[in-house]
Specification:
Layout (H helix, E strand, L loop, with lengths): L4 E10 L2 E11 L15 H9 L6 E6 L2 E2 L4 H6 L1 E4 L11 H11 L6 H10 L15 H9 L10 E4 L8 H16 L3 H13 L1 H22 L3 H22 L6 H6 L1 H6 L5 H15 L1 H12 L6 H28 L6 H12 L1 H15 L5 H30 L1
Parallel strand pairs: 5-6
Antiparallel strand pairs: 1-2, 1-3, 3-4
Helix pairs in contact: 3-4, 7-12, 8-9, 8-13, 9-13, 9-14, 9-16, 12-14, 12-17, 13-14, 14-15, 14-16, 14-17, 16-17
């Protein structure tokens, strides 16, 4: 650590209770600080304030001579934070989790480098086992293996790092800490898509829901072909909208539960860019699949092939909007009980224009009118959402984490 970390008159209030106030502290380069106290005394809150994950009720944290809020990205590029939840994905192996954690921190490491870090922690035999099959102590050691990677960051903030460790691992971590002080976007998409591939049932549930809802309308209305052709655009768009809602809450919730969202917030990349990457991954594992299967479902409405093509294009333009707008609601309801219901109440009114212009494009084509206006409006909304939605989602995530 080349600069000092300094806390000036820090106060923390949680749930209307003051945990600490007027806290002044300086952590100089080459030093180790251990924070101890009773449960509920504010140890974790202090560490989160130190990292910039939590805003203090009063005071500021300085990195050198500047507040960490002035150059948050640069500060986070020097920081490793390991919370009391290890931020490990149960459907990834140990080595995949380690590579993923490094990637979130801005480090691109090879399989060999990850394997070497696990080997040093005596975890080489567990390297290719899924996290869900490992003990709590092994999970903790895997998370701590990030400290053994080449070019590790200069500031280590560890929340209860010795929990669940045996005596040998405890001594190894102490030695690692002493040695450290003595010596001084595409990845996110890939990560989330790999998780989606490991959980095929999630994407399959979205497709099945889409197919079931779209099929109920012909069954309920009957075989009247002209009527089916007339209602097809609206019904298929409603089915796609409802199907997209099924997985919206999972954009951030699973990362929030297992602690990965803290790592995402502390990544060297700007948080809005990471949020955009996660939203793209969500669309590719849900909205894109809905668009791809829509021509098959459109056949039961007796739509001509040229009309089916217009429907497909409208869904390609509209479903990314559902993910982008949905990401804002997912962030706002992240820390709320019954978030799924609240998410639907927030998002459904906001996506109504997407439904109107998406279905309207197909209806306009059926009537012999042009689709340029509808597609232009969908494209304009998509461009605006691509720019604004990640910032709104990032702000809502920061609020939820606090």
């Amino acid at each position: 650590m080349s600069k000092s970390l300094r806390l000036e008159s820090i106060a923390c209030v949680r749930g209307g209770r003051t945990l600490f106030e007027d806290l002044r502290l300086e952590i100089k380069p080459g030093s180790i600080l251990r924070i101890s106290g009773d449960n509920g005394s504010g140890k974790s809150s202090l560490l989160r304030i130190l990292c910039g994950l939590l805003s203090p009720h009063a005071g500021q944290v300085f990195w050198g001579s500047d507040p960490i809020t002035e150059d948050r990205d640069q500060f986070h590029s020097e920081l490793i934070y390991l919370g009391h939840i290890p931020a490990l994905k149960p459907d990834f192996s140990a080595i995949e989790n380690l590579i993923s954690l490094a990637l979130l921190g801005g480090q691109l490491i090879s399989d060999e480098e990850a394997m070497q870090a696990l080997r040093e922690a005596d975890l080489d035999r567990q390297a290719h086992r899924f996290i869900r099959t490992l003990s709590q102590g092994q999970k903790q050691r895997i998370a701590l293996s990030r400290l053994r990677l080449p070019e590790a960051k200069t500031i280590w903030v560890l929340d209860e790092p010795f929990n669940a460790l045996d005596r040998e691992s405890n001594l190894s971590l102490q030695s690692l800490l002493i040695n450290h002080v003595n010596h001084g976007g595409i990845g996110v998409i890939t990560r989330d898509l790999r998780l989606a591939l490991r959980r095929k049932s999630d994407s399959l549930a979205v497709l099945i829901f889409f197919a079931v809802v779209a099929s109920l309308f012909p069954l309920g209305i009957g075989p009247e072909q002209n009527l089916l052709m007339q209602i097809a655009p609206g019904m298929l768009w409603i089915a796609a909208l409802l199907a997209a809602m099924v997985s919206l809450h999972k954009i951030f919730s699973e990362d929030f539960i297992d602690g990965s969202l803290d790592q995402i917030t502390l990544t060297a990349l700007p948080l809005p860019l990471v949020v955009l990457a996660k939203t793209i991954a969500h669309w590719m594992s849900s909205g894109l699949l809905l668009a791809l299967v829509s021509p098959i479902l459109a056949l039961q409405f007796n739509l001509p092939m040229d009309t089916v093509g217009i429907l497909f294009v409208s869904l390609l333009l509209g479903t990314p909007l559902l993910s982008l707008i949905g990401s804002i609601g997912a962030g706002l309801t992240l820390a709320s009980r019954g978030g799924g219901t609240l998410l639907a109440l927030i998002i459904l009114p906001l996506v109504s224009p997407v439904l109107i212009f998406g279905a309207g494009a197909v209806e306009s084509y059926q009537s012999g009118l042009g689709v340029t206006a509808h597609f232009s409006l969908l494209g304009a909304m998509l461009a605006i959402a691509l720019f604004l939605a990640p910032f709104a989602s990032a702000a809502s995530i920061r609020i939820a984490l606090e």
